[in-house]
Amino acid sequence: MTPLRTGIGALLLIILGIAIYGFTYPVSNLPVHWVSFPVNMAAGSFSPTGDLFLGLGETGTHCTLYAVELVSYRVHTVELCQQDETLSAVEWHPNGHMIVVVPAHSGEVWIVDYDTHNLIHRLRHHTSLIRGATFSGDGRFVVSFDADGTVVLWDASSGNLLVELEGHEDMVTSAEFSMDNRLLMTTSFDQTVRLWDLDSHSEQWQTSTHNATVFTGAFSPDGQYVVTGGADNTARVWDLQTKQELYRYTTSSWVTHAFFSSDSQTIIMSTWLEGAIVIWGFEAGTVVQALSTGLESELLDWTPQRTYIAIAVDNSVGFWKIGTE
Predict the structure, then answer these.
(1) Is the dihedral of CA 113, 117, 120, 124 positive or negative?
(2) Nearest Cα to Cα of residue 178 among 214, 225, 246
(3) 3-state SS string over 143-186?
(4) Cβ neighbours of residue 166 closer than 8 Å, sequence gap 6 or more
(5) DSSP E strands: which ranges in 214-306?
(6) pLDDT digits (tens, 9 = 90+) for 255-285
(7) What is the distance between the alpha carbons of residues 188 and 146, in angstroms, rounded to a whole number?
(8) Phi then psi for 127, rounded to 5 degrees?
């Protein structure tokens, strides 16, 4: 078995990198294209082709999306409805023509035709605040999750409820489909990570070793690993087959988002209070690159090709081509 590696050495490398190689930058010198919005950005999603970004404001946006063209970086608004409703989450369908959005206070999940802005399905089941929703990679399913720990799987075509996955005892923070769309991973305030088999709709595995809220979980593109991150200030890499923890990265702030590079060799993660983005070569135990805004920031999304990420700082979003300085 590959030995467990802590991130102490990796953290020292970041410190040395900052001091010697200039891995971190003041905001004005970041290798990022910054786009300003009239409101603070709370969520966002890249289109399947990676050339369009949809952003959501924190408050007062009245059913409005902000669309950014990644070539020109021009911004235009998209009015999805006439209701005085703030949208709290958005994700693209793999076909690039539909989106799933969560109106913050309606108790519903909407599947919308992005081209026509027509509402296709209203998904109703949740009784507490819905935290997010996303499509499976093949577009067949939608998963939604809420503040009381409810996870619901829907048929994306018909809008029918397929199953409620029971087990979490507190707010669910993320849900991610595996690359083959056979597994679902969920993370939660109940300090657990859970894997669900989508054929049997049963829980396949869970761990509570973070001993704190788990904010994020992701599968590697090659299907070998999963990564999880949480309020214990760690990111952990697990063998998907054996469910054993293989590698660990330790930082000084919550790990709020983490995902694998396209070759499954590195992990891109964000830390909350530090406002840092770290690219971690987990097998070698080295930091490949690190970038810091020096401010509280949020990693909103990454392109399906895993070439660009979107970072929110107040009412600005920075688009960084990963691997450039």
Answers:
(1) positive
(2) 225
(3) EEEECCCCEEEEECCCCCEEEEECCCCCCEEEEEECCCCCEEEE
(4) none
(5) 214-219, 225-230, 234-239, 245-250, 255-260, 267-271, 276-281, 286-292, 298-302
(6) 999 999 999 999 999 987 767 889 999 999 9
(7) 10
(8) -115, 0
The whole-angstrom separation of Cα 229 and Cα 236 is: 6
Containing 81, the helix (H) or strand (E) segment is: none
Token couple for 250: 């330790």
Q: Would you say 245 and 237 are in contact if contact means Cβ atoms under 8 Å apart?
A: yes
Tell me whether strands 141-146 and 130-135 are parallel, antiparallel or unpaired: antiparallel
Q: What is the CA radius of gyration of the chain?
A: 19
Q: Are 188 and 173 in contact (CB under 8 A)?
A: yes
**pTM exceeding 0.85:** yes
CA distances from 277 to 54, 87, 163, 259, 267 (A): 21, 26, 36, 11, 10
Distance of CA 105 to the CA centre of its chain: 21
| The amino acid at 158 | S
Q: What share of the chain is helix, strand, coil (3-state, %, to 5)?
A: 5, 50, 45
| Residue type (1 letter), 296 | E
pLDDT, tens digit, for every residue of 52-61?
999 998 865 6
Residue by residue, DSSP assigns 196-216 as: EETTTTEEEEEE-TT-S-EEE
Distance from the Cα of residue 28 to its chain's centroid: 26
d(CA 131, CA 145): 6
Query: Residue 258 carries which side chain, given as an amino acid letter?
Result: A
